């Protein structure tokens, strides 16, 4: 028998091997019809999967991330079934759910073209309407090999042969043989729920990511329970294209990339203004909150990375070099440098907490196919901080970090969700320390009454973490900030403090990065505002446009007066029409345009045009500056004109 604990705290007893769907149906017939599966002890399961141990049980729907995983995984099988029906000689590799839908890798002599996607979509809808039941079957290794060899599915055969000898093998049969796949699940009960489908693109993918293996064809898609959801998705995708930071970055002259340095961003003058304004503000915030700033070297010797644990757990993402015949590594993380600074001198319990902040540039090897503008690069600057504290201070320090995160994200209008990421399989240290660390972070979230989700096995190798996931204006989610609790580095580097009894003790180390990657954060706010940055941070605040050369001197004098008040301003002296200059200023997302001519020169009053094209006439210089200061100092996200 197994005990199943429900979210309301009630525990029900079932036969060992009871299916997820049977438990859900027992709870509520209505819930059974509307839900897609469940999370069982942190693992996502479809309705056909068995429960073989006591567990916590939570039903999931499409609105839940886990529900989407089940829905989209089933959709990948549905797509494969459609491809098989149209091209019977297709060979299938893998077809997982991903963050934004699903894909399947296919080996087929026919080369897919965009017109094929419509054909596959139509076939998928036709199959889905048949309400095909999806049956989970446990199968012996020998039977699985025999079946997939007979079907000519070479990639499935290879996957089976690479499984451990004692591995449980399952297949999922869609519609009594319509499509049978080697799969762990999870899946829907039937195809009927899949009502709206959009196949998005075709790409190439090496089998198992190995460039020495065959290039397969990958088809990406997404699906929904209702057509309305698909329509909303398409609309958001169009909005995302409009906000693409790579396009806007080029238009606004913020940053660039060059083939001579793939994945390494070049920040240009306007981008550096934006960057400096962001970091100058954030540095003042950190100073007010008790942080001191340090800077540690970009390159340190190999021995350090063995001691820190990065060599064993992160080596494949690091870059290496030699100096004086010795091995060195370019740092992928800033924490070992901070640890060395802490360890330079003795500390008393009265000194703690010690908060050390660093804008540290790191380098991490990313595959070329994963690079994506500022969001995925090979070098970035982390707004790191490391707090060394007593165990009794952990909760208060986490509270302060959460408050800092809320200040940061609300300043830029971001909504966010919080995840608690727990011990990964590849971890360092003792289970007892991990249990303590996970409980400390969870207790802090519970005491604050903060909603959060558990993200199992996604902690850092040295400790669990609280992750902040930002939702932007296009309703996409980005993992940004993180708070991590670490017992391992203080042990590895023998960090100590002297307690009230004169005894040496080990401090607790908290890692904290809230901007996260400064490059990614700049990419995120570029898309959040579609380049229409708030006045205080915008590289282009005011442009003055004289209607003719006759008023150039007046424009220059006005420019000097505004500049003296501390604002970024320039005069557009180009021999172009006024309309053209206004359009160019709007393309640069300039906050305000001042078109000056005879009336402005004689009256001393200004006509202020904002980037939406709205005009405010007869504004005195003093009123203009007063409003600009108010907008800048309040960090308003809206124009005050």
TrEMBL record:
Its EC number is 6.1.1.3. It is found in: Cytoplasm. Transmembrane segments: none annotated. Residues 271-534 form the Aminoacyl-transfer RNA synthetases class-II family profile domain. InterPro entries: aa-tRNA-synt_IIb, aa-tRNA-synth_II, aa-tRNA-synth_II/BPL/LPL, Anticodon-bd, Anticodon-bd_dom_sf, Beta-grasp_dom_sf, TGS, TGS-like. Signal peptide: none annotated. One of its GO terms (cellular component) is cytoplasm. Binds 1 zinc ion per subunit. Keywords: Aminoacyl-tRNA synthetase, ATP-binding, Cytoplasm, Ligase, Metal-binding, Nucleotide-binding, Protein biosynthesis, RNA-binding, tRNA-binding, Zinc. PROSITE patterns: AA_TRNA_LIGASE_II (PS50862), TGS (PS51880). Its cofactor is Zn(2+). It catalyses: tRNA(Thr) + L-threonine + ATP = L-threonyl-tRNA(Thr) + AMP + diphosphate + H(+). Homodimer. HAMAP family: Thr_tRNA_synth (MF_00184). PANTHER family: THREONINE--TRNA LIGASE, CHLOROPLASTIC_MITOCHONDRIAL 2, THREONINE-TRNA LIGASE. This is Threonine--tRNA ligase. It comes from Anaerococcus porci. The gene is thrS.
